[in-house]
Amino acid sequence: MQLNPFSGVYLTDPASAWRRILDDPDRVPYAEDLGLWLISRHVDVRHALADTATFGNALTLAPIYEVCPEAMSVIVQIDAPPTTAAADPPTHPRTRRALRATFANTADRAEAEYGAIVRRRVDELVSRLVDRAGRRADLVGEFTTELPLLVILDILGVPDADVDQIRRWADGQVALIWGQPDPDEQVRLARGLLEFWRYCQDLVRRRLDSGRDGVDFISRALTYRDDDDTVLTVTEVASLAFNLLVAGHETTAGLLAHALDEALSRPQRWRALVADPRSVPDFVTETLRFAPAIDGWLRVTRRDVTVGGATIPAGARCLLMIGAANRDPAVFAHPDRFDPRRPDAADHLSFGHGPHFCIGAALARLEAGVALTRLAEAIPGLRLAPEHSRSFKPNVSFRAHHTLVATIDIHAPADGPTAAPAAATEARAA
Ligand code: HEM
């Protein structure tokens, strides 16, 4: 089986590749060029995500290709201990407990602890767009990537002045691990990642020196450890910050861009959101299913395992194809239809499943809900520019738009039905 996530149709219409893999008679094919087993069916992906005894996380954050020696000599200096997506038992249950205690991971906690931050940041960004009424804006550069980054920096207590640097480092990490950089680029990105890790260590050190009585995540994690390394080490606090700064922004940026793309590429859908903001949460859930921000996630087998008739040997890397699983006709009727009213949209696997289930799912939903509601209120005439064309950055895991060029029109659209049930269920590839 061939799968090239870095060029061709996968960058404009990934759903056609997901369909091909779901229909493959081998059921779990091996992609020789990537060196990855492709697990695509909902039942298999869900099982693999939760079965940590068979599917380990040790290589989840390791580059998917053979890194050149010069870049590798830099990468080995990044001695961040595994705490989240790369951690296995017995470490993971302990670090996960720490994360649950210090990071708001339910809808109520996220609203109580982060609601004010999210609303303030959304309002800032929306008013900047409103100031440009009548003109074009790239919603990716000016909204969808900005909001989650600013929010996660606020939560961690990181100064705004560091925004640009962190954005570059985090984008670099996504390209270094799941992209296809050439050797020179690998070295540059690896150096950036090492600087980023040192920055996180320094952030924690400074917080220790200044007293840890703040309400930010780092202060809370330091208070939680209470000087007890068996609970959490200081280096593990830095590693949590290192992970959250990337996980908290690259993912939600994708969700926001996909939601706006789905809404604006069918103007009836946008009008429906403008007319009835109560429909926003269902719209967000269906976006998560239909166009997941992470559409493939890595695991490594810890022992031989048979999945869908294929025997995968121990030590093999597997790509859990969340995007394909979310389109599995065995679970979702008419899976290629975007339908915010489908009753089972929440059965998507876009936040994972089991012990590693995304800790930021509630925050991501909060951000997307507030963002869409405020944008619909303030810019009801928002629409994609005619010259806009959809394309995604080449990556095995993160599905990110290059741009989303739109016209900022603060007037309500003059005509067209406000709610369009037929259009809301039109089929379209992601
Ligand atoms: C739409 C937005 C997001 C998506 C699609 C997403 C997706 C995912 C996925 C697929 C996983 C792996 C789950 C598994 O292995 O079972 C994950 C884990 C994780 N996510 Fe998210 N995420 C999002 C937002 C966030 C946010 C906002 C944060 C934090 C601020 C965050 C932090 C994490 C962390 C720390 C983990 C690792 C958890 C663990 O290993 O215990 N994510 N996420």
TrEMBL record:
It holds the Pfam family p450. Keywords: Heme, Iron, Metal-binding, Monooxygenase, Oxidoreductase. Coiled coil: none annotated. GO terms for molecular function: heme binding; iron ion binding; monooxygenase activity; oxidoreductase activity, acting on paired donors, with incorporation or reduction of molecular oxygen. The keyword Metal-binding applies. It comes from the Bacteria. Belongs to the cytochrome P450 family. This is Cytochrome P450. It comes from Micromonospora lupini str. Lupac 08.
